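Help needed: design a sequence for this.
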C-alpha cells in the first residue's frame, strides 16, 4: 500500500517533502502571516507492518529549536492515549521512529485538544448547577469566544488558557479545573466557590487552535504581546477578555501555557512592574511554595529569569493584570517534554497529568484565597 500523510483536519499541521523507502521527510508549516512554527499534527495511513522514520527537516528553524533536545514526539492510534516515540535531534532535523501495527496512526507535538472537544466541554460545564455561559464576541474567523462563570464569593478569580494555540496542554488543564470546580462531591471546591467568583476562558485562541498554529491567531498576532493595547482588528480575543476583566476587576489570575524547553512545571510572576512591592509579591511566591508542597508535579527551582525593577513587559497579561488591577497574577508553564522530577517514560507530560495539576492548583488556592 502507498503511505499517505494527511493534516487536513482541526489543528492539523504538516507538509510532505518526500518518501524514500521507510523514510518520510516532512516540514512544519508556519503560522498564517507569521514566521512562528513548531506545532505539528498529522496522521499516517497505509503503513501497517512497517517501521517508519519520520524526519522534520525544518525543525532547526522552529521558533524554539533549542527545545528539541530531550523532546519526544507523541503518537496515538485512538486519539485518546498519546505515548512517546523514540526521538532525536541533530543538524536541525527532528527524527522519530515508530513501528506501525495499525491501519492508522496519529502524531503530534503534544496531545491535541480539538475545537470539537472544546465545544463539548463548554456545553457540558454550562449545564452544571451554578454555572453561566457568555459569548464574549467573535474571533477573526468568526468563532465564538467562550467565558464560563461560577461561584458567589467576594473575590474575583480569572483563569484563561491557550493564548498560544499550539500549547494544547493549557486546555487540558482548563478541562481539569472546570471539572474540579463543578464536582458536587468536592468539598474544597464548594467552599472555594463560596469565597470567589471564577471567570474561566478555556481557549483564548480558537482560530489558531483550529488552524494548527503554534503561537498566533488568524492575523498572525501573538496574543500575549497585545495586552497593553489590543484591538478588534488584530487581537479581538484579548480586547474582549480584557474588557470583561475591566467590568469585574481581578484579585487573582492564572494564565495557562506550555514551555518548549524546560522539563518542569513552573510559575512566572510579575516582578518588574512599576507598582511592585515585596509584600504583594510575597503572595505570589507563597502560592508557588504551597503548590510545590501540594504536588510532586510542581517545583520552584527551574523557571524564567525575573524582570529587572521597572522593566516588566506590560504587553504580557500577567504583568498587565498585576499592574492594572493589583492582582496576584501568574503564568503557569507546563512542559512539552516531561516534569523530570516526577517523570513518566511512557506518556511523559500528558493530558491526565495536566488535569491533575489543575486540581492541585485549585486545592492550593482553596487554602490561600483568604490571604489575597
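Sure. Designed sequence:
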Amino acid at each position: 500500500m502507498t503511505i499517505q500523510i494527511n493534516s487536513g483536519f482541526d489543528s492539523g499541521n504538516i507538509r510532505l517533502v518526500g518518501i524514500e523507502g521507510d523514510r518520510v521527510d516532512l516540514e512544519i508549516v508556519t503560522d498564517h502571516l507569521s514566521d512562528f512554527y513548531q506545532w505539528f499534527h498529522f496522521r499516517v495511513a497505509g503503513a501497517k507492518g512497517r517501521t517508519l522514520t519520520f524526519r522534520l527537516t525544518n525543525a532547526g528553524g522552529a521558533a524554539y529549536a533549542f527545545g528539541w533536545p530531550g523532546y519526544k514526539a507523541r503518537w496515538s492510534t485512538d486519539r485518546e492515549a498519546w505515548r512517546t516515540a523514540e526521538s532525536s535531534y541533530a543538524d536541525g532535523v527532528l527524527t522519530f521512529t515508530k513501528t506501525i501495527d495499525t491501519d492508522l496512526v496519529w502524531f503530534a507535538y503534544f496531545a491535541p485538544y480539538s475545537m470539537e472537544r472544546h465545544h463539548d466541554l463548554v456545553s457540558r460545564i454550562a449545564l452544571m448547577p451554578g454555572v453561566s455561559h457568555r459569548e464574549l464576541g467573535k474571533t477573526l474567523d468568526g468563532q465564538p469566544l467562550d467565558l464560563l462563570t461560577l461561584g458567589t464569593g467576594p473575590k474575583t478569580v480569572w483563569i484563561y488558557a491557550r493564548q498560544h494555540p499550539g500549547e494544547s496542554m493549557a486546555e487540558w488543564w482548563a478541562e481539569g479545573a472546570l471539572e474540579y470546580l463543578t464536582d458536587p462531591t468536592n468539598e474544597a471546591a464548594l467552599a472555594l466557590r463560596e469565597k470567589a467568583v471564577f471567570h474561566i476562558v478555556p481557549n483564548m485562541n480558537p482560530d489558531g487552535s483550529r488552524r494548527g498554529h503554534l503561537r498566533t491567531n488568524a492575523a498572525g498576532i501573538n496574543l500575549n504581546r497585545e495586552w497593553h493595547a489590543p484591538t478588534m482588528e488584530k487581537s479581538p480575543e484579548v480586547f474582549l477578555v480584557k474588557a470583561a476583566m475591566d467590568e469585574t476587576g481581578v484579585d487573582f489570575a492564572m494564565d495557562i501555557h506550555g514551555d518548549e524547553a524546560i522539563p518542569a512545571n513552573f510559575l512566572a510572576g510579575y516582578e518588574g512592574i512599576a507598582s511592585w512591592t515585596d509584600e504583594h509579591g510575597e503572595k505570589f511566591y507563597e502560592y508557588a511554595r504551597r503548590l510545590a508542597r501540594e504536588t510532586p508535579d510542581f517545583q520552584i527551582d527551574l523557571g524564567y529569569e525575573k524582570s529587572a525593577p521597572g522593566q516588566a513587559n506590560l504587553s504580557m497579561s500577567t504583568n498587565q493584570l498585576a499592574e492594572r488591577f493589583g492582582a496576584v497574577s501568574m503564568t503557569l508553564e507546563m512542559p512539552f517534554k516531561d516534569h523530570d522530577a516526577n517523570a513518566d517514560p511512557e506518556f511523559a507530560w500528558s493530558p491526565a497529568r495536566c488535569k491533575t495539576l489543575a486540581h492541585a492548583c485549585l486545592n492550593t488556592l482553596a487554602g490561600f484565597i483568604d490571604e489575597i
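The radius of gyration is 20 Å.
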